[in-house]
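ok trying again, last paste got cut off:
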Amino acid sequence: MPTFYFNIVSAAGTIADFEGTELATLEDARREAIRDARALMSQAVLSGKDISARRVHICDEQGGILLIVPFTETIRPFD
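nice, full thing came through this time. structure:
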């Protein structure tokens, strides 16, 4: 099973994932990135912060970016 790395990127810099997570597919990694982004945004909102400009870079074992998941694309407007 491949290992995917979830780096959190913002204007201030990158928080690198050095451990990675073994998942079956890139789609599974995308779902994991969405869950992680939502959890991080939830914690930030409780602290009165907006981190929605951040994004998750899903990388392979060589550090190549496979997919970028913007935090803003992990939520949808609620009317």
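cool. The beta strands are 3-10, 13-15, 21-22, 55-59, 65-70. The chain has one domain: 3-74.
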